Amino acid sequence: MFLLAIMTVVQASFWYLARQTALAAARQGVDAARAQNAPAGAGAGAAMAFAHSAGSGYLLNPAVSDGGSTPRTIQITVTGQVVSLLPGVSWAVSQVAQAPVEQFTTP
User: Fold this and answer.
1) What is the band of 40 on the pLDDT scale with cuts at 50, 70, 90?
2) What Cα–Cα distance (Å) separates residue 25 from each residue in 69, 102, 104?
3) Full-prediction pTM beyond 0.85?
4) Are 8 and 14 in contact (CB under 8 A)?
5) What is the pLDDT of residues 94-103, one digit of tens each?
6) How many CA within 13 A on the CB side of residue 91?
7) Which has the least CB within 10 A, 38, 40, 60, 96?
8) Which residue spans within the chain are E strands per DSSP?
9) What are the residue boundaries of the structural domains of the chain, listed by start?
């Protein structure tokens, strides 16, 4: 029972770390894409780079999508798999970040 409790805590920790990494990657992508005159695909590229560098070890197979974005709003979705302590069991995480595109206005 004690080992099962420890495994549960460790697995929950992996899930939490993977979820937070996916959210941070989505936010990083939104920040890159919402800058004025940002090139197309800048958000997805930044999110994928962040997910690979920061999530190595507990966010497996990260995937990034900018579906749902409009000319006025950027939306980045990061999905991936959580490292599992149980063979054959897999948990997925998905996080979304959204923000308006920066625009220059004059008073």
Assistant:
1) confident
2) 16, 19, 26
3) yes
4) no
5) 999 999 988 7
6) 17
7) 40
8) 59-65, 73-82, 91-100
9) 2-100
